[in-house]
Amino acid sequence: MKIGVLLKQVPDTESRIKINGDANGIDAGDIKWIVNPYDEFAVEQALQVKSSSGGEVVIFSLGSKRTLDAARTALAMGADRAVILDDDGFAGSDSLGVSQALAKAAQEEGIELLFAGKQAIDDDAVQVPQIVGTLLGWPVATAITSYEGDDSSVTVKREVGGGQTEVVKVSLPAVFTADKGLNSPRYASLPGIMKAKRKPVKRYTASDLGVEVGSDNAKVTTDGFHMPPPRPAGRILDGELGDQVKELVKLLRQEAKVL
Amino acid sequence: MVDILVFCEVADGAVKKSARELLGKAQQLCGGGDVVAALLGASLSGAGDNLGAWGADKVVTVEADILGTFVPGAYASALHQVVDDVKPAVVLASASVIGKDLLPRVAALSESGCANDVTDLREGGGGIEGTRPLYAGKVLANVTIEDTAFFTVRPNSFVIEDIEEKAGEVKGFDADLGTDYGYEVVEVLTSGGDAVDLAEADRIISGGRSLKSAENFEILQSAAGKIGAAVGASRAAVDAGYAPHSMQVGQTGKTVNPSLYIAAGISGAIQHLAGMRTSKVIVAVNKDADAPIFQHSTYGIVGDLFEVVPMLEAEFAALD
Questions:
Q1: Which ipTM score applies to this complex?
Q2: Can you say whether the dihedral through the CA atoms of B91, B67, B182, B82 is positive or negative?
Q3: Beta strand pairing status for B299-302 and B281-286?
Q4: Is B113 in Cβ contact with A95 (below 8 Å)?
């Protein structure tokens, strides 16, 4: 089976984020870039499916030149090859544009099963995998925490809040997005890292794919980046512990009015 | 004047309370246009009857067996057909598990754009615009959407006090739906007894690694029960095996937005703050007076959570 993984490169969670001069993006200067943490679960699941069903694992990533570093990490984990969508024609795309490009690239490569992280931790859009599935006409099961099945049908679990977990049966081809807990992503071994350098990487431009995306075609504009206002200084209570607790409950009820 | 369609989630035959916030906000934003509630389900008898009180001018119900559980393809198709019929300028839903999954699909079917998890909505130059937290809330951005604008709204973003009662006339809508979307919910498992959804909870008590064991989370559960709060955990507590990942609050867990967030024995790592920084009131309980959480809290008690939490529970129990 040809298994695809949608992968995104994002700033490390510990990064200090600085806003760029146009207030429509971040200053990439000092950022340490990593593979989106949820995408590691997606890569691992794809590798596990390959080891039982055979086939190949293809990494798809849209971004600038440095995106290749993130793709190489996945190749070092064991993925077979990468497809990079790096072109000015993709710049400024909204989620729909990114999805159109990735869906077309997956079609070009004959992908039959797709994995992605449940969200990217940079823009937290939570959109691309669902839209890719919608455009391909495939079912999409989001935020899965378990995966069992064969080449035609898969049973997954997904947490839906309120202490409830859905058990869902999905027919392939399909898209699955991975939540933490799905599996334990393997580390890249040293031989894996060496091999990854020689694994094939294909590059697509927007015109190769025949998609009209990019900022001119985006319906969603995200700008006016600003820092959240600081919280006003808090109040540390003092006195006997028992009195502090009484005081706290009184404040919560009378001052803050949340009880 | 804009017409606004609000997707209202239905659970156990009733509209979820998150719809009140959305309908109320829609009424503030519509400038005299229609606020239309959309309900999807297998059987909706009576479910939409009182939505006029929450500000709905009209209620559209779509009933089909395939809509009895959340089958995303069927829900997307049904809601897309309603959008096509009502032709609203704006479509709103809660940024819940279902809302964030569904709305991007419907926007794509409508060849329009969507923004998930906005924390504010307002009238801007080009229509209704939103505020979205990015980078786990380290940055806020303005979002504008051409054509039909789809937004999911982070729960508890708006305090809606007065809602003008509207007609709320209920009308059925016949959607053209298939019977097989390659996606079947075969079972719903209920784990634990925690019925309060963390992401939608209005009050939360969270614990960190200093709880020392899974059993000790019972102290928090017990106190939470007195004020109808949900229980959360820090990543450190989850990684230590004291709580399941479904309880994790933070950048790689759930984003929460309650009016009251009590952090017990949580130091306040960036990754945790990212998930709860928009809470209206934050209370920190920590033995370490230098813990960073105190810089972000509204009220702080420097003390041992094993002493403070039971005292809090007693005070909560005494509330009328």
A1: 0.94
A2: negative
A3: parallel
A4: yes
CA distance B297 to A131: 39
Distance CA B46, CA B15 (A): 10
Give the whole-angstrom CA distance, residue B302 versus residue B320.
27
Is the pTM higher than 0.90? The answer reads yes
Task: Report whether B35 contacts B6 (CB < 8 A).
Answer: yes
pLDDT digits (tens, 9 = 90+) for B145-161: 999 999 999 999 998 88
User: Are B168 and B284 in the same domain?
Assistant: no
Angle in degrees, CA A32, A33, A35, rounded to 5: 145
Contact B142 A219 (CB under 8 A): no
> CB B17: neighbour CB atoms within 10 A?
14
Q: What is the pLDDT along chain A (259 residues), one digit of tens a residue?
A: 999 999 999 999 878 889 999 999 999 888 999 999 999 999 999 999 999 999 999 999 999 889 999 999 999 999 999 999 999 999 999 999 999 999 999 999 999 999 999 999 999 999 999 999 999 999 999 999 999 999 999 999 998 887 789 999 999 999 999 999 999 999 999 999 999 999 999 999 999 999 999 999 999 999 999 999 888 888 999 999 999 999 999 999 999 999 9
User: Which of A66, A71, A64, A108 shows the shortest CA–CA distance to A89?
Assistant: A64
Chain B neighbors of A183, CB-CB under 8 A: none
Residue A217 three-state SS: helix
CA distance A210 to chain B (A): 17
Indicate yes or no: CB of A241 within 8 angstroms of CB of B303. yes
Q: Do B154 and B285 fall within a single domain?
A: no
Residue with tokens 């399941």: B244
Pairing mode, if any, of strands A220-226 and B260-264? unpaired
| Nearest residue in chain B measured CA to CA from A250 | B315
The length of chain A in residues reads: 259
Instruction: Please enumerate, as own/partner, the contacts of B30-35 that have beta carbons within 8 Å and a separation of 24 or more.
Output: B30/B1, B30/B2, B30/B3, B30/B4, B31/B1, B31/B2, B31/B123, B32/B1, B33/B1, B33/B2, B33/B3, B33/B4, B33/B89, B34/B3, B34/B4, B34/B58, B35/B3, B35/B4, B35/B6, B35/B166
Provide the angle, in degrees to the nearest 10, between the axes of the packed helices A128-136 and A95-108: 50
Is residue B259 in a domain?
yes
Range of the domain at B284: 198-318
Domain CATH number, residue B153: 3.40.50.620
Minimal C-alpha gap between B2 and chain A (Å): 18
CATH 3.40.50.300 correct for A2-217: no
Helices (H), B208-304: 217-226, 235-239, 270-276
Number of domains chain B is built from: 2
Q: Considering only the beta carbons, identify the residue of B101, B133, B295 that sits closest to A130.
A: B101
B303, HSE (Cβ side, Cα atoms, 13 Å): 22
